[in-house]
Structure formats: structure tokens, C-alpha cells
Design a protein that fits this description.
The protein is mainly α and 403 residues long. It has 18 helices and no strands. The C terminus is likely disordered. It is found in: Cell membrane.
């Protein structure tokens, strides 16, 4: 694998740490600012919405410069946002810092996915994308638990200051290792926007919203769920996040491996399994011995969907994949925002800390149904004598754009 993939993984590590570490220190942040847990959950929702909006906007703004330079700009924005969060005197300013940092997230992973795919042979694209996303998953094994431990012992502000330092490391890695890769000649913003006329691109994004939303419905409130329901000590949350991260690493690698061989079956298995495990989590969350392995499975099944969904968007966006790729990262975070919000609603309504697991299970089932619909439409579109759908670029058009 090219060293440039390592640089992308380093940036992903920093971004993954700031995205997920808030779950581990949510009670501490809520206590310091004097807000409720559901209100503190807005730090998750706000970040996710920032990713969703920032992904297409930042990608569009970056069409005038090289992909490497844009990646560096995004890492700079990420650093600034985390520094704001680290020094915020009031909750509103911390929320602003989270949003600023989030604006870099979607475009970094979207542009990074395109760069990763272009660095390797066509049959290894999903594996290269998974390699970049490994930084995000490893962050949940090392960065997030360590950040949670530091936040609980030395203060959550130190955690976000260290995350900003990770951003500096990511910026240096991109500057040193990623080659100059100018945007393809002849591909303009209107070509990028044309990808959204393809129904398969839209269905893949909808699957992303619902499927990954299922994961965040449970994980956003993992700290209060495990301490108040399962009976774990506050310090145990760190190690539970390690387990979640290990599941993510394994699921991401498996998803990347099999997405290059059997993409849709991989989605069927991962989404169906995720729905089942989330439903069971409403029961296993009451028992320490059962809660821990369930958390591993949620991470594994959830992240097994990431490489195949990202590759499906790239495949169907044809010759103009950058904006669609970034928008799909935004879709992941739209799912995060939706599920964090819905989870807060059911908790505030008095249904208990395990109620978000039911929300996640329903979202995962909906994503599975869309996967079956997408496959059925694809079979119909590729049947002999079927006309090309208007607005869906053909492979020939994609190749022309790439030239």
C-alpha cells in the first residue's frame, strides 16, 4: 500500500478521535456546563449536522485547488475548531467549536476516499478506502479511550487540546506523504452535481443515513447506559469504548475485503446483523457480561457497511465522484445526528437509557430494506433491452469525464 494511505489514515485518526471522544466525556461536559445529558448530546448532533452541511460546501469550495492542498486546508480548520472547544467558557461556544471542526470532516473523508482509490489498482479500491478509514477505527481503540481517560482524570479540556495536536500531526502527514494530485481536467462542479441524478447514488446515501444512524443511536448514550443500567463504574467506560473500537477495526477490514468481491451480500449481512444486535442490546445492556460483547458486535457490524457503501457511491458516481463521496460522508453524520436526536427524545420521554437501542434497530431494518430495493432496481436496469435511465451517466460518459 502507498505511504500516502498512511498519511490519510493519520488524518482520519485525529478526526475519528474528536468525533467519538465526546461520548466518553459527555457526563463531565454536561456537569461542567450545568446542562442535562440530552442537552449535552447536542454536541454530537451539532457535529454531525456540521459534517452533513460542510461536506458538500467545503468540497465545492475546494474544486479550484489540488486535492492535496484542500486536504491540508481542512486539517487546519479541524485544528481551529478543537482549540475553540478546548477553551470554550460556555456551552454555546463549545458547540460552535464542534461545528467548526466538523466542517472539515466530510470533505476530508470524501476527497481522501477519491485519492485513496486513485492510488491503487481498480480491484483494490475498497481495500484502499478501508485502509484510510482504519485511522478512524483505530482512533476508537487508542485515541478515544485514552481521550476519555484523560478527560475523566485531568479534565475534558485537556482532551480537546490534545485532539488539536493530533490535527497538527495529520496536517504534517498530508503535507509530507500525499502526492500532488490536481483535480481531473474537464470535471467541473456541474459534473459533480450530475451524480445526484443517479438513483443508486441516492439510495446508497439513504442506506448510509439509516444504517450508520443505527450505530449512533446506541453509542451516543453509551456512558450513561453502561453506568446507570449495566452497573459499570465510570472508569469502565474507557475500556468499553476500546471494545467498540476493536469491533470497528475488524468490521472495517472485513467490509473492505468483501466489498471488492460481493458488495451487496456484504451489506445484507451487516445491516441485518446490526438490526438484530441492536434489538438484543435492549436486553444485554442490563448485564455486564453480555453488554461488552454486544458493544463489540455493534462496532463490527456498523463499520462493515462503510467501505461497501462508500465504494458503491464511487462506482455509480462514475467520472465525477468527489462531491458524491463527500456527500456520503455527510450522510453518515446525518444518520448520527438523526439517531442522537431521536435517542435524546426517547430518553427525555422517560423510556430509559436503553430505549435508543430500539431506535437504532428500526433504522437498521429500514436500511436493509433499501439495500434490497437498490439491488432489485439494479437488476432491472441491467436487464437486456432496458434503456439507460435519464440523468444516470453511463460508463462511457464517466470515462470521457475522466479523460
Amino acid at each position: 500500500m502507498p505511504l500516502a494511505l498512511l498519511a490519510l489514515a493519520i488524518g482520519a485518526f485525529g478526526i475519528g478521535t474528536t468525533e467519538f471522544v465526546i461520548m466518553g466525556v459527555l457526563p463531565e461536559v454536561a456537569g461542567d456546563f450545568g446542562v442535562s445529558i440530552p442537552t449535552a448530546g447536542l454536541l454530537v448532533t451539532g457535529y454531525a449536522l456540521g459534517v452533513m452541511l460542510g461536506a458538500p460546501i467545503m468540497t465545492a469550495l475546494g474544486t479550484k485547488i489540488s486535492r492535496k492542498r484542500m486536504l491540508m486546508v481542512l486539517m487546519g480548520l479541524f485544528i481551529i475548531g478543537n482549540l475553540i472547544s478546548a477553551v470554550a467558557p460556555v456551552f454555546g461556544l463549545m458547540l460552535l467549536g464542534r461545528v467548526v471542526a466538523s466542517l472539515a470532516h466530510g470533505a476530508f473523508f470524501g476527497i481522501g476516499s477519491v485519492v485513496a482509490a486513485e492510488l491503487v489498482a481498480p480491484e483494490k479500491k475498497a481495500g484502499a478506502i478501508a485502509m484510510m478509514f482504519s485511522g478512524l477505527t483505530v482512533a476508537n481503540v487508542i485515541g478515544v479511550p485514552l481521550g476519555t481517560l484523560i478527560g475523566q482524570s485531568a479534565g475534558w479540556r485537556i482532551t480537546f487540546a490534545l485532539v488539536a495536536a493530533l490535527g497538527v500531526l495529520g496536517l504534517l502527514g498530508v503535507a509530507k506523504l500525499v502526492p500532488e494530485m490536481p483535480k481531473p481536467e474537464g470535471v467541473h462542479l456541474r459534473h459533480e452535481l450530475a451524480a445526484f441524478k443517479n438513483v443508486q447514488v441516492l439510495l446508497a446515501m439513504a442506506m448510509t443515513v439509516l444504517g450508520f444512524g443505527g450505530v449512533f443511536a446506541a453509542i451516543t448514550y453509551i456512558a450513561p447506559m453502561m453506568t446507570h443500567v449495566a452497573g459499570f463504574a465510570d472508569g469502565s467506560v474507557t475500556w468499553l469504548l476500546v471494545l467498540f473500537g476493536l469491533g470497528m477495526v475488524g468490521g472495517n477490514l472485513i467490509g473492505g475485503r468483501y466489498a471488492d468481491r460481493a458488495l451487496m451480500p456484504m451489506l445484507y449481512v451487516s445491516l441485518g446483523g446490526l438490526a438484530l444486535v441492536l434489538a438484543l442490546f435492549t436486553i444485554t445492556a442490563h448485564h455486564k457480561a453480555l453488554a461488552a460483547p454486544t458493544i463489540v458486535l455493534i462496532g463490527a457490524l456498523g463499520f462493515a457497511t462503510v467501505p461497501p457503501l462508500q465504494k458503491r457511491v464511487l462506482d455509480h458516481a462514475h467520472g465525477a465522484p468527489t462531491l458524491a463521496s463527500a456527500a456520503n460522508i455527510g450522510a453518515f453524520n446525518l444518520g448520527n445526528a438523526l439517531s442522537a436526536w431521536l435517542g435524546g427524545i426517547v430518553i427525555a420521554a422517560g423510556f430509559g437509557y436503553t430505549a435508543p437501542n430500539w431506535v437504532g434497530a428500526v433504522l437498521a431494518v429500514a436500511a436493509l430494506l433499501l439495500a434490497f430495493l437498490s439491488a432489485a432496481l439494479e437488476r432491472r436496469e441491467t436487464a437486456p433491452g432496458t434503456p439507460v435511465v435519464e440523468g444516470a451517466p453511463s460508463e462511457r460518459q464517466g470515462a470521457a469525464l475522466q479523460r
